[in-house]
């Protein structure tokens, strides 16, 4: 396939969680491929840094300070962005607690950011696309946590499993409108979200994950961003309702 299939010139993308990690890496790569990238995040300092990186590389970007758990603000930001061809719903948070110690407020907080935030973004962008009968690509961010049980990650895993089901349902409903919907389920990626231990603990955690990967390493945000670019582009024109797993081989489901 010609490399032109990955050319996003003339297209516009809306990326949540764009202030750091996978969201930032995805925004940078989509801009490099030619898209106008609308960067959204509640971290305004990080958001400005992402904008500066895109602009410094010659790309085009806009910023939208945004808490994805606020449906009205999501609606307003999408409306302000205007024409959109691509959504990358990468915003999310992490919480650790055992099942028996999980409090209602923690579950509600994680579900609000990691599931409802994805739902709101998908709803608003999809409504915009269907209103103008335009094709598009919605990309949600699941996790390798949906493929195995992880101690302490009930809230996170449940929210990401809900994202997978949302993705499949939306793909079925939006297919007749030429809107594709796919999920990315990364393995251990070196981001601010996974950097929640002290230095020694972080080193041990990464070493453990690297040992169980056939590739012998943990992932970088750019590893996931390339998967995002594939799903955003015409190279994946016949792909919808799928879960792509840039996880270094840690999980190999059917």
From TrEMBL:
GO terms for molecular function: oxidoreductase activity. The keyword Flavoprotein does not apply. Pfam families: adh_short_C2. Transmembrane segments: none annotated. PROSITE patterns: ADH_SHORT. Keywords: Oxidoreductase. Its EC number is 1.1.1.-. InterPro entries: NAD(P)-bd_dom_sf, Sc_DH/Rdtase_CS, SDR_fam. Belongs to the short-chain dehydrogenases/reductases (SDR) family. PANTHER family: 3-OXOACYL-[ACYL-CARRIER-PROTEIN] REDUCTASE, SHORT-CHAIN DEHYDROGENASES/REDUCTASES FAMILY MEMBER. This is SDR family NAD(P)-dependent oxidoreductase. It comes from Streptomyces rubiginosohelvolus.
């Amino acid at each position: 396939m010609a490399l032109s299939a990955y050319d996003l010139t003339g297209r516009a993308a809306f990326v949540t969680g764009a202030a750091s990690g996978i969201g930032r890496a995805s925004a940078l790569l989509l801009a490099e491929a030619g898209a106008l990238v609308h960067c959204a995040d509640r971290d305004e300092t990080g958001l400005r840094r992402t904008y500066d990186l895109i602009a410094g590389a010659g790309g085009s970007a806009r910023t939208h300070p945004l808490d994805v758990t606020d449906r009205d603000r999501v609606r307003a930001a999408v409306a302000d962005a205007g024409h959109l061809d691509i959504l990358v719903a990468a915003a999310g948070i992490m919480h650790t607690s055992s099942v028996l110690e999980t409090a209602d407020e923690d579950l509600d907080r994680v579900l609000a950011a990691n599931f409802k935030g994805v739902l709101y973004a998908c709803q608003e962008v999809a409504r915009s696309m269907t209103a103008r009968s335009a094709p598009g690509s919605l990309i949600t961010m699941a996790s390798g946590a949906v493929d195995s049980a992880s101690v302490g990650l009930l809230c996170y895993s449940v929210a990401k499993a809900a994202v997978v089901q949302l993705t499949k349902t939306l793909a079925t409903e939006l297919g007749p409108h030429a809107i594709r919907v796919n999920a990315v389920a990364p393995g251990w990626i070196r981001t601010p979200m996974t950097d929640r231990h002290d230095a020694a603990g972080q080193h041990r955690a990464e070493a453990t994950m690297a040992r169980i990967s056939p590739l012998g390493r943990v992932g970088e945000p750019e590893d996931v961003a390339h998967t995002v670019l594939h799903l955003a582009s015409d190279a994946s024109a016949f792909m919808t309702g799928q879960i792509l797993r840039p996880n270094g081989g840690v999980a190999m489901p059917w």
